[in-house]
Amino acid sequence: MNEYDSNRIFDSVKKIGYEKTDIYENADCYLLNTCHIRDKAKEKVYHEIGRVKKKFRFKKKPLVIIAGCVAQAENQEMLKREPYIDLVIGPQSYHKINNTILNHIEQKKRKEETEFDADLKFDYLSKIKNSSSKVSSFLTIQEGCDKFCHFCVVPFTRGPEYSRPYNQILDEAKYLADNGVREIILLGQNVNAYNNDKFKLSDLILSIEKLPEIKRVRYTTSHPKDMTEDLFEIYKSSKKLMPLVHLPVQSGSNKILRQMNRKHTVEEYLKTFYKLKEINSKIEFSSDFIIAYPGEDNRDFNDTYNLIKKLKFINSYSFIFSPRPGTTAENLGQIDKKIALERLEKIQNILFENQIKMNKSLENSVIDVLVENLTEDKTKTFGRSDYMTPVIFDGEKTDIGKIVQVRVKKSNRNTLFGEVITNSNQKVA
Question: Of 1, 2, 51, which Cα lies nearest the Cα of 27?
Answer without folding.
Answer: 51
